[in-house]
Amino acid sequence: MARIDLVDLAHSYEGPNAPEESFALKPVSMTWRQGGAYALLGPSGCGKTTLLNLISGIVAPTRGKILFDGRDITGLTTRERNIAQVFQFPVIYDTMTVGQNLAFPLQNRGVPRGEIDARVAEIAKLLDLAPYLNRKATRLTADAKQKISLGRGLVRSDVAAVLFDEPLTVIDPHLKWELRSKLKALHRALDLTMIYVTHDQTEALTFAETVVVMHDGRVVQSGTPEELFDRPSHTFVGYFIGSPGMNIMSAEVKGREARIDGHTIALNRSYDSLPPGAKIEIGVRPEFVNVAMPAPGLLSAHIDRIDDLGRARFARLRVGDVKFAARVPLGFSIPAEQAGLIFDASHVHVYADSRLVEGAP
Amino acid sequence: MDKTVNQKAWFLVLPVFLIVAFSAILPLMTVVNYSVQDTFGNNQFFWNGLGWFKELLDPSTDLGGRFFASLWRNLLFSGIILAIEVPLGIVVALSMPRRGWGVAACLVILALPLLIPWNVVGTIWQIFGRPDIGLLGYVLNQMGFDYNYVSNDFDAWATVVVMDVWHWTSLVTLLCYAGLKSIPDAYYQAAQIDGASRWAVFKAIQLPKLNRVLLIAVLLRFMDSFMIYTEPFVVTGGGPGNSTTFVSIELVKIALGQFDLGKAAALSLVYNLIIIIVCWVFYTVMTNAGADRQAKGEIA
After folding, report:
1. How far is A85 from chain B, CA to nearest CA, in Å?
2. Does B192 contact A58 at a Cβ distance shorter than 8 Å?
3. A171-203 confidence digits (pLDDT tens)
4. Are residues A98 and A182 in the same domain?
5. Nearest CB to A79: which of B192, B204, B209?
6. What is the pLDDT of residues B280-292, one digit of tens each?
7. How far, in Å, are A121, B74, B132, B144, B155 from residue B126 at the CA level?
């Protein structure tokens, strides 16, 4: 168990002389505290698995350091690092029984027999594997095998962290949900630091206390699910998290007003010192824009279609050429083609070159 | 279930039947024909029933004695070379580089012995081991070892065994290397994370994954060494005495040396039967292992 610090950590698969723009992981510094549940979230190829493999030591960093409790472990091998990792596809040892599979990491470290048995029994119980302990592991289904992989990751109580690399990819959807809640329960029960890599926002947001969003090798925001939802610090976060994602439109912002297509939207804060020459956009989540009958004073939009998501209806619109999504209020009868949009000013954010700008009150 | 009967299919199968008949069945029947008769030349044949077979399977007769002696000798030889080549092949495969230019270099070097005609392999070792002019034989003798494969049984065996190991370990290595390459990286990474030692990785991951490849390697090497003829014949000619006379060498001696066609035919059939039975046992074991795995849902 340990606090994990990343210091200017960067990695390039093309060697240290490659231009920094091509790095799979651009320099990042952050701290992961003991016992936390973290998710690394981002689209495929954003560098999240690279970051995970750097922590576990499967990949050696091109630059930077990794500290466990302040101790530099960058030069240590995976075996010496005392870390557990669960991979995307189940890895099981064919010739062993389920119990032997679970005991393997402990055996290799010379843990006494009695302690191994106790720990294996505990983990098997938590993962509902107890009835299968004496079965050959090869005879089980893919999700049972992945449970064994999870179990092997969790069986050591002294690990610095348990890393999960999209562990639910091969699992059936209905079991996914169950296993995810199980992981969350395990996190509470075992007091282990867990880092969970995924490209699925639901998985990340339900599992983690802190979600680290990555894009193109960079960490773009790290925060609680609420922070990511309410105040995305980068347009990518706004767009990637939430369904439908945040609406992003270029606008002219001056003081407490944003102008789009000659139309004015009120802002809650004042933006007077925007960087000159930057690309200015406003971002607002569909949840904070209501569709209304067209009226003077409202930004008008063309309705493409209505998505009924059960708990809410969202209108897919176009403002000029820009796609836009907005909430349809309960019981509202939808106009044929044109609609007006009502913005909730407190949730309209301003972005300069894709980064959130803090306005003055 | 009603199946459509289409007699036209026979026309498609017929050519195969004909080819197999002329290439396998007719020659085999000729051998069967010889094995139950005796001939003194002039195309005169006398019925002998199962006489040759009875003699062959009775170790107290000259023929039976020679057959069993060569059979045990051959089984011992196969056992020795398997015991050396399989572990050695695995070790070499494990120590080969997994990527980079070294892979191609290793593969080419390993493939070289396999590409040399058997006859040539025999000649190479025959000369290599000669105490007067051969590099190996000369050096050994200069170092004080009294090595001479022509006069000493042990030296003859050692030469033939080392020659076979040199010739065929590559085959086991290449098969194992292919098997090792097919193990996904995640297994090794997981083993590292689980803190497995080199030996534990071998026992828990590599050996189980090599299971099937090794079965094939053992089958191929067993059949080949059980039928070995050319190399020992060229090197030792079956000697000194009869010490390296394996079954096929004995067979040729009887058929072509003594021109005892009946005895040779009987021996051929029994020899053939042994090989077929061993093949069948291996095949059953392998398919059972496969079916077992299929039942476990491992093969999609």
Report:
1. 7
2. yes
3. 888 888 888 888 888 888 878 888 999 888 888
4. yes
5. B192
6. 888 888 777 665 5
7. 64, 20, 12, 20, 12
Contact B132, B138 (CB under 8 A): yes
Specify whether domain B61-295 bears CATH 1.10.3720.10. yes
Contact yes or no for B193 and A83 at CB 8 A: yes
Number of domains in chain A: 2
Rounded to the nearest angstrom, the minimum Cα separation between A204 and chain B is 23
Same domain? A229 vs A297: no
Write the residue in A94, A109, A138 that is nearest to B195 by C-beta: A109
Residues of A in contact with B195 (CB under 8 A): 79, 105, 108-109
Cα distance between residue A152 and residue B193, in whole Å: 10
For residues A120 and A18, state if they share a domain. Answer: yes
Paired sense of beta strands A355-357 and A349-352, if any: antiparallel
Residues A252 and A330 occupy one common structural domain: yes
Task: Using CA coordinates, name the residue in chain A closest to B189.
Answer: A58
CATH value at residue A88: 3.40.50.300
Q: Give the residue numbers spanning the domain of A251.
A: 247-357
Do A79 and B187 make contact, defined as CB atoms within 8 angstroms?
A: no
Nearest residue on chain A to B207, alpha-carbon basis: A95
CA distance A318 to A303: 7
Same domain assignment for residues A94 and A233: yes
- Do A18 and A111 share a structural domain? yes
Chain B residues within 8 A of A170 when measuring between CB atoms: none
User: Which residue is it, tokens 């509902």?
Assistant: A128
**ipTM > 0.95 (yes/no):** no
B195–A79 C-beta distance less than 8 A: yes
Q: What is the CATH number of the domain that holds A337?
A: 2.40.50.140
Q: Between A and B, how many CB-CB pairs are < 8 A?
A: 58
Looking at residue B96, the DSSP 8-state letter turns out to be S
Cα–Cα distance between A136 and A99 in angstroms, integer?
9
- At A22, the amino acid letter reads S
A342-356: pLDDT as tens digits: 888 888 888 888 888
Q: Which chain B residue shows the shortest CA-CA distance from A97?
A: B204
